[in-house]
Design brief:
single chain, 711 residues, mainly beta, 6-stranded mixed sheet, 5-stranded mixed sheet, elongated, disordered N terminus
């Protein structure tokens, strides 16, 4: 057999400590080797009946040596495990000697046929000129056979000899045998070991209706060379949770178990780690059933959308909101009392949308959790049966602009809603299969908005608050959880307050997304592509210079209102665009405690032409009015530059109106914005297109932002 092919097969199928494919159990006797060197020692061991007894007289260790020569040589040895021993350390190798052999050693029971777990070894680094195998097998006292050969039976070493050392020992783990559910032991906090190859330790715990939460404390010794992994399962093998303790750490988790009964913790080392029965390989496990402190978690937990706690009056899903009046829902109190806990709350809007939901999530500090919540909306076409179906939505996309509901177009790949056997691009899903509200069909939830507490005080209250739009009537979910789903706090409640507001901005009440004057983006970034919002801008060419101008309401966090108007300095007589003209700005800052209006004037290419914002004290009794341009309270100009439009009589400017910081809102207080073209333009010598003589055209008296700065 060609050597390269042998290596490929062996590397794919045969690894250290893993059982290898069956091979001939007797020597070829050298019949296929036509170049036996004179130094080749062919021993008399040809099969189990002629096995060489391993020498065990000198010490507790049993030793032997031999040569793999000729090709396809198989050396058989017989050995005995003495009474009182239940482990056998196997060491077969050439030490530091160079060899062409890739050793394989197989330990068999007394019938010379039954393979012993942990006693099937093979060199997993072919052609490195070294070959040494070690393992520890679980055994019982009695007779055994060991067969040694080259992995592929295509090499010989007629110069070097391998050595065998076999040492019987006693497993220090007092929980053994506990390799199966039937043998499971009680977790008593006493040291456990992974003392032999493929060792699995199983522990049993009983959960009752009164103590449905299991606390798991798993400690791995500081000197351990392996991560200790656990799975939590029932007797039927259904896995409910998993985790791992790194060397020198204690993993503490709490896992909820709804159904009373017996459960099992299955422990093992991470793959490809050697057994260790020394003090450095110790682990301890303590399992403690506890009560569930969350008042929302009863016989049915609200960890999934189907079991969500209703937010409506009297624990009814309906909110009572119909769009005619604002509604404040009763406060809900809960607790993230176990690892990975997610508390789902449900809100149904039968009518009244579009609306605004204000969500406030609070917890006393210091807390062990980093509170977060997701606002999840069902996507009607993305039917599902489990959370695993919801890696994506059933919405094809080419860019994030195609995913206004979940904000991200996934790269090309295999997703649940791709055609069978094909890759595609789909909008990202929320990982939650929830009731749609219509016939309770389950569909994937889209992650409309996600938020987490970024800083938590050492005392007092940590609060997360936002307002987000509800564009249509239907079902919505709020999922409260730890940000990374890896911490819990069973000592502190959180409070969830939800209010529903009427959407009073006529520009945000469109029946379709295209009818609104912005592209919904809850996570705005400076310098992002605003093309989608530009395309929805309302044409205010006629209104913007009228007696009132244009108005709007920044009614939720990250809300923006977009307007556009044609280049205002057109020469009526010639229907051409002449030189630069001045602009007179007039705007009202609402009487808000939080909202600080920002106006950004953009060119057709979406570059900033100028920007300004209110920098005074918030919360005045009446709207604060300002004037920009050559009015008495300004020392510098605002303008429209002919260099932008050239001869294009349809050239447009865009206005982007938002909150300073894009994180505050004012549901009912409108702003007003009016712009007039006037004769006087910029001061002499001001030319936006001359890098050596630029003019910062902004109103210094009211501390407005220079051109190019986005608040």
């Amino acid at each position: 057999m060609p050597r390269a092919i042998v290596f490929l097969l062996r590397t794919a199928l045969c690894w250290t400590l893993v059982a290898c494919p069956p091979k001939p159990t007797t020597d070829a006797g050298g019949g296929d080797d036509d170049t036996i060197a004179g130094t080749c020692v062919v021993d008399g061991s040809r099969d189990a009946s002629t096995a060489i007894a391993v020498d065990g007289s000198a010490s507790a260790a049993q030793t032997a040596s031999g040569q793999i020569c000729p090709r396809a040589d198989v050396d058989w040895y017989s050995l005995t495990v003495p009474a009182g021993s239940d482990l056998l350390d196997l060491k077969v190798g050439y030490a530091t000697a160079v060899t062409r052999i890739d050793l394989q050693a197989n330990l068999y029971a007394a019938d010379a046929t039954t393979a012993i777990d942990g006693g099937q070894l093979a060199d997993d680094k072919p052609d490195d000129s070294q070959s040494n195998l070690t393992s520890t097998a679980k055994v019982t006292p009695g007779s055994y056979f060991l067969a040694v050969r080259d992995v592929s039976d295509d090499e010989r070493d007629d110069v070097g000899s391998y050595a065998i050392t076999l040492t019987a020992a006693k497993d220090p783990d007092t929980h053994e045998p506990n390799d199966t559910v039937a043998q499971a032991k009680v977790a008593d906090g006493v040291a456990g070991y992974f003392a032999y190859a493929q060792d699995v330790d199983v522990y049993k715990v009983t959960i009752t209706a009164g103590l449905p939460v299991l606390q798991i404390q798993l400690t791995s010794a500081a000197g351990s060379k392996a991560v200790v992994e656990y799975t939590l399962q029932n007797a039927g093998g259904t896995i409910f949770a998993s985790g791992a303790a790194n060397p020198g750490t204690t993993l503490t988790q709490q896992r909820p178990l709804v159904t009373p009964g017996d459960y099992f913790i299955v422990l093992k080392q991470e793959p490809n780690r050697a057994p260790d029965r020394t003090a450095t390989g110790v682990y301890t496990l303590v399992l403690t059933p506890e009560a569930e402190p969350d008042v929302n978690e009863g016989a049915t937990r609200n960890d999934v959308g189907a079991n969500a706690t209703p937010l409506g009056p009297g624990n009814m899903p309906a909110s009572g909101f119909d769009g005619t009046a604002d509604v404040t829902l009763a406060q809900k109190v809960g607790r993230i009392a176990s690892s990975g806990d997610r508390d789902f709350y449900r809100l149904d809007l039968a009518s009244g949308a579009p609306a605004v939901v204000e969500i406030t999530l609070s917890q006393q500090a210091p807390a062990a959790t980093q509170l977060a919540f997701d606002l999840v909306v069902p996507e009607a076409t993305s039917t599902c049966t489990s959370d695993g179906d919801c890696d994506s939505l059933n919405i094809a996309c080419n860019s994030d602009f195609d995913c206004e509901l979940s904000h991200l177009c996934l790269p090309q790949g295999s997703y649940h809603f791709c055609p069978a056997g094909q890759t595609c691009r789909r909008c990202v899903g929320g990982g939650a299969c929830v009731p749609s509200g219509v016939g309770q069909q389950k569909v994937c939830g889209a992650p409309q908005f996600l938020a987490q507490v970024t800083t938590s005080p050492s005392s007092g209250t940590s609060t997360l608050r936002t307002a987000q739009p509800l564009f249509t009537a239907g079902t919505y979910f709020i999922a409260v959880h730890d940000f990374k789903d890896d911490q819990y706090d069973d000592a502190r409640d959180y409070s969830l307050d939800v209010k529903l507001w009427r959407e009073l901005d006529p520009n945000d009440r469109g029946a379709t997304p295209a009818a609104r004057n912005n592209f919904y983006d809850p996570y705005p970034l400076q310098g992002q592509n605003y093309a989608a919002s530009r395309d929805r801008a309302i044409d205010g060419t006629l209104a913007i210079s009228g007696p009132v101008g244009v108005t709007g309401i920044i009614s939720y966090a990250s809300d923006e209102d977009w307007f556009k108007f044609k280049y205002p300095c057109k020469d009526i007589a010639t229907n051409t665009v002449p030189a630069t003209c001045g602009l007179q700005f007039e705007w009202d800052q609402p009487t808000s405690q939080n909202l600080r209006i920002v106006v950004l004037m953009r060119r057709e290419d979406l570059g900033i032409h100028q920007s300004f914002y209110y920098a005074g004290t918030l919360g005045g009794a009446v709207p604060t009015q300002f004037f920009g341009g050559p009015a008495a309270n300004c020392s510098q100009c605002s303008f429209a530059d002919a260099g932008h439009a050239g001869t294009d009589v349809n050239y447009e400017y865009f206005l982007q109106v938002r909150d300073y910081g894009a994180n505050d809102w004012e549901v009912a207080q409108p702003y007003r914005l009016r712009i007039s073209a006037i004769n006087d333009g910029c001061p002499a010598g001001c030319n936006e297109f001359d890098p050596g003589n630029q003019c910062s055209c902004y109103c210094a008296a009211t501390m407005m932002c220079p051109s190019g700065v986005i608040p």
